[in-house]
Amino acid sequence: MRRATDVAADVRSGQSSAIAETTQALEAIGARNEELNVFIHLDEDDALAQARAIDEHVARREDPGVLAGVPLALKDNLCRRGELTTAGSRILSGWRPPYSATVVERVLAAGAICMGKTNMDEFAMGSSTETSYYGPTRNPLDPSRVPGGSSGGSSAAVAAQMTPLALGSDTGGSIRQPAALCGLIGVKPTYGLVSRYGLIAFSSSLDQIGPFATNVADAALLLEVIAGYDPRDSTSLAIDAPSYAEHLEEGVAGLRVGLVRELVEGADEEVEAAVARARGVLEGAGASVVEISIPECRLGLSAYYLIAPAEASSNLARFDGVRYGLRVDAEDVSAMNEATRTLGFGAEVKRRIMLGTYALSAGYYDAYYGQALKVRTQMIAAFRSAYEKVDLLLGATAPSVAFRFGEKTSNPLAMYLSDVFTIPTNLSGDAAISVPFGRGEGDLPIGVQLLGPGLSEARLFAAARVLEEAS
Amino acid sequence: MSLREGWEMVIGLEVHTELKTRTKMFCSCENVFGAEPNTKVCPVCLGLPGSLPVLNARAVELAMAIGTALHSRISPSTFHRKNYFYPDMPKDFQISQYDLPINVGGYLDLPDGTQVRIERAHLEEDTGKSTHLGSTGRIHGAERSLVDYNRSGVPLVEIVSGPDMRTSAQARLYASELRGILIATGASDGRMEEGSMRIDANVSVHRPDEPFGTRCEIKNLNSLRSLTRAIDFEAERQLALIEEGGVVRQETRHWDENLGATSTMRSKEEAEDYRYFREPDLVDLAPDAAWQERVRDALGPMPAQRRSALLGHVVEATTAQRDFVDVVVDLGFDDYVMAAVEAGADAGLALARAANELAANAESVANLSRDAFVSALQMEQAGEISPTQAKQVLSELLAHGGDPREIAAAHGFEQLSSDSLGDAVAAVIEASPEEWSRYKDGDDKLAQYFIGQVMKLTKGQANGKAVVAELQDRR
Question: What predicted TM-score, i.e. pTM, was given to this entire model?
Answer without folding.
Answer: 0.91
